[in-house]
């Protein structure tokens, strides 16, 4: 496969990977051709679909065919979805007839469903052939560009899935036995409409390299393989992490996002949080006279409210991740919130004690908190318990509320919970202060 | 394989999955035996290693052998690592001789290295056999419990890796041709000491289902398969997400973590953040006389500092994830920080304008900010630009600093950055206020 170009002229794969993000599309095409064919194909495979599509569009039309045809049908379908609608038919026409049919069928599925992930080429046999016949038949299938070679699926003439045999089992079985007698009948299948996140969960729960995809009538349509799922799991985790950090999912590598898009994806969330946080100014306005009389109270506001934000951020992050992994489901909400209430009480007590000690010890060396410093320290301690508790409750409850409303729980990001808890924190703090300091500082 | 128990007596897989977390170890063993053997094995496979180990320990010693032997050597090695040291030799002794050797070799590797992930059973042939001989030889290898059947690795007599052929290629090749003539020589290999996160990145960059693992001398030791990597990617993402949320990684499903462990894993980070946040009280103490004279300044403190925290959280989350995905590396630091400075200026300007408008418009309806409300609004606007900018700079710079110090960048969690920026925010805000309000409010 390798062409006879002298080695010293060759761009290495690492050099290309380093320079890639900086190259315009035309130079990328030139650079790809500098690699050996094997390396160029590997590198092309490894690119995100968006970039594959840009490469193909940057090529003269007579060269597009080669690159498009090295892609398995599922990847070709993804690529064609990235292309402007008016160019799609021209690209489809470059494929050979059977591939075009497969790609067109895949294009009917949403990209994030099992049907959009699956590969329609897989090894199949009838139940009544012998092992030896099956192996001979598979050698024929292999010539027809069979992509995935892990399991052999046993189907009836309606393409309904009857069982599965691994290649290992087929190879080690008595050659004269029937496939029907060695196949597994208890099957894990995936509906072609299943969301890709759910498909990833099924992969994590079973030790299989590939899973069969079936339609509503039980007909097998293709297989999803673990290597596709590696991409899905990384993508979904990236999306969740970005949402948890208070951004809309970027959907592109960080360095590729243009400045206007970057600002747009972040300014929205930031502005909403800012508007929410304005309520703290309103809440504090209600206690302006308290601050007037006891300025010392203002000093602890950031400390108090940020503790609520931090504990809320812990709670929401843990709960959102547990939901994404399928460890926690909607009916578990009360058990989770109860756990988080317990955690909040303990964590609040720990911070409360640290806070009280800080004030009492500090005062011995540098008397700045006035004669009522002990009561002040009690105000801080009690407020911390209340604020941390409100943080863990809000942080654990919100993801469940969002899921009930069929919204993405990851929207209950750390910044979002912190903002909510900041307002509550101001109210808790000044309420405790009003009660305990009445007649003393206030 | 399936035993002849009447179906109506059987626990279903879903029923067991629902009840699992609530069952003590002894009941789990009983429940597993209620399933059909296929289902029980699948379910056992799907459990986290810690739980597999607890099941095996809960079994009478004569039954341990069966369950241990169904695990491939890499999973058996993981399980044995979870077992208290004094029980390990007894378990190893339950394995048959070849498996015991394989498992003992794997136990020498750290669990999070390629060597600890790999499976030592793979299909191998010599370069000079013909395709037909190779296929016959593989049918023999398959009988010896060959686990992974994706690629055939071509080795010399020193176990050095010469090339690779996929099963599909082998099956579709001319039976009389030599393997040497159809094998690929440009190989992607993984060092046995490579960190599992780096292995996952290599999988994401190449379209392979399995990668060969080689030692420092180039000898092949095993293969890592994409289905193992699905677990790794999920685990690593979970760890990163939990750290980003301001917790130490739980390493166990959320609902399984006992309350004392949960408190311990969260109280540490929370207390460190609390101690850091105490600096805000100190910083504000320095401006106590400002607050005394202009209480109105205190009202905006949560709004100002939280905006810095939110923008910092966005920046650090995006940068940390881009680092984990390999999109951004150490030498990129200046390009990233420059991007974030631009983002910070724009985002700060947007929030600054919203903040100024808020004060100016509000004052028209409800005059609470006094005669200098326009200057006050300018103070808020400028402070917001400064604070948001300091957030994006700190949030983008910190992950690079941590990586340079060989610490995990994910430690620069949203709460950590927010705490840092809170202190800076107080100082920026009061400095701007001192300059602009001198002679007016102050």
Topology readout:
Two copies of one chain form a homodimer.
Chain A: H1 13-19, H2 25-34, H3 37-46, H4 49-58, H5 61-69, H6 73-82, H7 85-94, H8 97-107, H9 114-117, E1 122-125, H10 131-143, E2 148-155, E3 161-166, H11 167-172, H12 179-182, E4 190-191, H13 196-205, E5 210-214, E6 220-225, H14 226-244, H15 259-286, H16 288-293, H17 296-299, H18 301-324, H19 333-365, H20 373-404, H21 414-437
Parallel strand pairs in A: 1-2, 4-5
Antiparallel strand pairs in A: 2-3, 5-6
Distance from first to last alpha carbon of chain A: 85 Å
Strand content of chain A: 5-15%
Secondary structure category of chain A:
mainly alpha
How many DSSP-defined strands of chain A?
A: 6
Shape of chain A: elongated
Give the averaged pLDDT of chain A, no decimals: 84
Biggest interface, CB < 8 A: A-B, 121 and 122 residues
SS summary, helix count of chain A: 21
Explain what you see.
2 copies of one chain form a homodimer. By secondary structure, the first copy, chain A, is mainly alpha-helical. Helices cover 64% and strands 7% of the residues of chain A. The first copy, chain A, has 21 helices and 6 strands. In chain A, the strands form 2 sheets. In chain A, strands 1-2-3 form a 3-stranded mixed beta sheet. In chain A, strands 4-5-6 form a 3-stranded mixed beta sheet. Residues 1-8 of chain A have low confidence and may be disordered.
